[in-house]
Amino acid sequence: xxxxxxxxxxxxxxxxxxxxxxxxxxxxxxxxxxxxxxxxxxxxxxxxxxxxxxxxxxxxxxxxxxxxxxxxxxxxxxxxxxxxxxxxxxxxxxxxxxxxxxxxxxxxxxxxxxxxxxxxxxxxxxxxxxxxxxxxxxxxxxxxxxxxxxxxxxxxxxxxxxxxxxxxxxxxxxxxxxxxxxxxxxxxxxxxxxxxxxxxxxxxxxxxxxxxxxxxxxxxxxxxxxxxxxxxxxxxxxxxxxxxxxxxxxxxxxxxxxxxxxxxxxxxxxxxxxxxxxxxxxxxxxxxxxxxxxxxxxxxxxxxxxxxxxxxxxxxxxxxxxxxxxxxxxxxxxxxxxxxxxxxxxxxxxxxxxxxxxxxxxxxxxxxxxxxxxxxxxxxxxxxxxxxxxxxxxxxxxxxxxxxxxxxxxxxxxxxxxxxxxxxxxxxxxxxxxxxxxxxxxxxxxxxxxxxxxxxxxxxxxxxxxxxxxxxxxxxxxxxxxxxxxxxxxxxxxxxxxxxxxxxxxxxxxxxxxxxxxxxxxxxxxxxxxxxxxxxxxxxxxxxxxxxxxxxxxxxxxxxxxxxxxxxxxxxxxxxxxxxxxxxxxxxxxxxxxxxxxxxxxxxxxxxxxxxxxxxxxxxxxxxxxxxxxxx
Length: 632
Ligand SMILES: *[C@@H]1O[C@H](CO)[C@@H](O)[C@H](O)[C@H]1NC(C)=O
Ligand SMILES: *[C@@H]1O[C@H](CO)[C@@H](O)[C@H](O)[C@H]1NC(C)=O
Ligand SMILES: *[C@@H]1O[C@H](CO)[C@@H](O)[C@H](O)[C@H]1NC(C)=O
Ligand SMILES: *[C@@H]1O[C@H](CO)[C@@H](O)[C@H](O)[C@H]1NC(C)=O
Ligand SMILES: *[C@@H]1O[C@H](CO)[C@@H](O)[C@H](O)[C@H]1NC(C)=O
Ligand SMILES: *[C@@H]1O[C@H](CO)[C@@H](O)[C@H](O)[C@H]1NC(C)=O
Ligand SMILES: *[C@@H]1O[C@H](CO)[C@@H](O)[C@H](O)[C@H]1NC(C)=O
Ligand SMILES: *[C@@H]1O[C@H](CO)[C@@H](O)[C@H](O)[C@H]1NC(C)=O
Ligand SMILES: *[C@@H]1O[C@H](CO)[C@@H](O)[C@H](O)[C@H]1NC(C)=O
Ligand SMILES: *[C@@H]1O[C@H](CO)[C@@H](O)[C@H](O)[C@H]1NC(C)=O
Ligand SMILES: *[C@@H]1O[C@H](CO)[C@@H](O)[C@H](O)[C@H]1NC(C)=O
Ligand SMILES: CC(=O)N[C@H]1CO[C@H](CO)[C@@H](O)[C@@H]1O
Description:
two-stranded antiparallel sheet, 21 helices, alpha+beta, binds 2-acetamido-2-deoxy-beta-D-glucopyranose
């Protein structure tokens, strides 16, 4: 079933799309700049790209103005927003990050984002409306990247219009079986996907399960594009007017590198980012970026060895790359009950893949082949680059790209919708791993503020209400020395999923949601970010404002006033630990009350972080088997 509606193609120059106008990559002429450097499409990760710098400068013209009006609305008493922003050393950079966790993370994240978005009904009155309009960077990982990608590549549509029924995120039927009981509709769906895969394979490219997964995701995220965005590329955003006019934040999508047969270890994972201009990693194991638009081009040391290639960087494929954990869905289908295209697809991959490698996305040819800055040779010596789900290194919130000192981020608002506890609530695991990483060689001088262990997160209610980390830059001096960092890291505002009006802790592997469930989770997310619509703290906006301006206050050597001091004593983690009480995690829907609490002996070692293991594939597979049995 081909959708006849061509949404953006009339507005977007044809070049930005796949040159074949299909899922298959095709040859294009190389950009002029490849001849001006001996490393062609690739550069060292020692600065921002010129494109990003230029774009961000323009974005600041908008965010500066919006932040003044947001702070004014926040009723901050300690300073005058206009004077403060206009006299600042530089523009304030706010980054917002959304964790992984499947549709649960996407939907809770949507509600949280909607509380920051002035386009949401009520967000200005009883939320944080106007804040996303003041934000510079917007990062997503796995389920969080579905949110970021859906909005960004649909002309920066709003969560409000999705809730109002603009046709995006019809999640009523499993993504595997979107026609519900309508078998004929499903057959057409899988035929389409099969055609897309054939087109890419026939053009000479390696297929991985991520291609299948990315195509299925696109049917939910890009229903208005021809053939559900088969020709929609990531770099298309550069030509979208909403991006060109800097009306949206700069999107960043995160994935991890993984060599087949190996596991991703948090401390030495290579964290990749995709942004509208580039793809690559700041980590010393790679320390390079390539032009995202020409992925698929055969190169040596970044220099094309043949024609350049366009169309490889399909938006759904990249969104699938950040979320390869879910590739498993496809393989859990029971082949004996399948027919036609779907049978062919599953058979194809069952034959070709070993169990350990179901989760990879193949980036062949490797854009970093033969490049010279990488500290780990195996990445640049192989003609294939393998990427996996951004959460596989347990850092389920995409923080690392936002910690890079070149980006000058002042504050990260980190939304955690992970399923860490038995009851699928967050417990701070992601922050603990990001904290630990700075001490490994991959940390490379990027600092991260002190955080406690997970027991403390739960016992001190740091997942029950917003918690600020690194409030006081001067407390971090010895940490900076220890990790060799030259700049103070951003202040981290952490907000975890918690039930207010709805039990929003659905399983990561729940594949279908009624519109009512979807909208209820979105509403709950709004309430998480807004402190239950400002009812729990009518100064919440001002307190968040204090966190946003704190680094600039420190740069100016000014001390904060009475209101911010009060806010910080309310929201900053005070450095204390409580790892003796193990708290039951069945939260009631007033958000603040914990369920049964029982005090048990200390379960120990969490401070070191290092003792935690990767969430095992065995568990994932078991959960999947159950889910599939129910959904199909
Ligand atoms: C800000 O303070 C004024 C005066 O105290 C009050 O009328 C107004 O409702 C407050 N606005 C917000 C958004 O809290
Ligand atoms: C909070 O605000 C949102 C957005 O305006 C609204 O949908 C929701 O019903 C409000 N929640 C409560 C408990 O009033
Ligand atoms: C948000 O909406 C309010 C009310 O309509 C308006 O006064 C304010 O300027 C808007 N802020 C931004 C950043 O658009
Ligand atoms: C994109 O969004 C803007 C602002 O909402 C709107 O003016 C424009 O018409 C939209 N473009 C398309 C192609 O839908
Ligand atoms: C998608 O198409 C439908 C039907 O034409 C339209 O109602 C809807 O507004 C479109 N959605 C977006 C995000 O453009
Ligand atoms: C990462 O660490 C693990 C365990 O120490 C090791 O097996 C693996 O080879 C390391 N990978 C890289 C790329 O250094
Ligand atoms: C490249 O990766 C493949 C797949 O794991 C492996 O078999 C091969 O040995 C690697 N080649 C090199 C040169 O490392
Ligand atoms: C926190 O979550 C991790 C998984 O992310 C889990 O292994 C650990 O047991 C949890 N700890 C607590 C105290 O909930
Ligand atoms: C940071 O410093 C302040 C004042 O200098 C102190 O009160 C606070 O406890 C310190 N916080 C941490 C986490 O060490
Ligand atoms: C939480 O709920 C689950 C499922 O209803 C139950 O098995 C578990 O015992 C409860 N835990 C606590 C601490 O109440
Ligand atoms: C955490 O919240 C629970 C339930 O509201 C409360 O009983 C407890 O005293 C709080 N703990 C701290 C350290 O604030
Ligand atoms: C601050 C710091 O240690 N930066 C290093 C990051 O990694 C690259 C590549 O290995 C080095 O060149 C930098 O000096």
